[in-house]
Inverse folding.
């Protein structure tokens, strides 16, 4: 945990701009989420939007990843590879995860989208996952332990009968794609490093209907699915620790007041 970067004001300003663009990209992608559309088509539109705004998608070519976003439907927990063969259907829930590199700075965010009318069970999972993210963000302030983010997320998810994925986590971000610290979404209270002003990281809880564990598709080495094929949901924001609280850098709809 000793390698957590305290960002300079210049870096914070650059990361804020990239984070806004990442969030704007998700807003732009929303119009294409409908039955009959392929995830490959959505990814193509995402790439065009990011490039048109003077940035590049961080995922494309990252450790061999072939696409400009991750699009994860239904039982896919994360790292779903967009494809022309994956066609959205009425009732699907999908996560779209975008990371932009703008002027060398990274912004990372993901959001759930519902394809048409979804089942009550699916909607409850999506709503609970968003609440998990909000609870985690409420823990971001100077002097608090990183473990308390995972503690409140796990406590709430379990109270609703869900499980928290522990094989993937949030991470420091901004001057690189993945930095220290590791931000666990299931953790013991008052554990881990202490938050300090200038730290920037993601909170991105992955919440499963069934078991917490995942399995990676052997044919592509990326796609992580639930072991029991039950639904999974995820939301992600990039957050900055301020001197008095936090700023959610990927929040362009003023859902989270700056504290």
């Amino acid at each position: 945990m000793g390698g957590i970067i305290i960002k300079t004001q210049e870096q914070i300003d650059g990361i804020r701009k990239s984070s806004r663009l990442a969030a704007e990209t998700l807003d732009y992608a929303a119009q294409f989420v409908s039955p009959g559309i392929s995830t490959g088509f959505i990814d193509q539109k995402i790439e065009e939007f990011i490039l048109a705004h003077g940035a590049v998608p961080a995922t494309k070519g990252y450790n061999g990843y072939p696409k400009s976003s991750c699009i994860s439907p239904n039982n896919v927990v994360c790292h779903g590879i967009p494809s022309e063969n994956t066609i959205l259907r009425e009732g699907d829930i999908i996560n779209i995860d975008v990371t932009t590199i703008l002027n060398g700075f990274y912004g990372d965010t993901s959001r759930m989208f519902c394809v048409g009318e979804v089942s009550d069970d699916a909607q409850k999972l999506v709503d609970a996952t968003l609440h998990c993210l909000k609870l985690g963000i409420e823990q971001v302030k100077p002097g608090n332990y990183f473990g308390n983010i995972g503690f409140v997320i796990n406590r709430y998810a379990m109270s609703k009968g869900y499980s928290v994925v522990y094989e993937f986590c949030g991470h420091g971000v901004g001057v690189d794609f993945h930095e220290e610290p590791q931000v666990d979404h299931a953790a013991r209270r008052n554990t881990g490093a202490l938050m300090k002003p200038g730290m920037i990281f993601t909170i991105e809880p992955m919440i499963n209907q069934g078991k917490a564990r995942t399995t990676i598709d052997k044919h592509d080495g990326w796609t992580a699915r639930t072991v029991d094929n039950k639904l999974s949901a995820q939301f992600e924001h990039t957050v900055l620790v301020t001197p008095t609280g936090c700023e959610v850098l990927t929040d362009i709809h003023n859902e989270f007041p700056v504290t």
About this structure: The chain has one domain: 9-248.
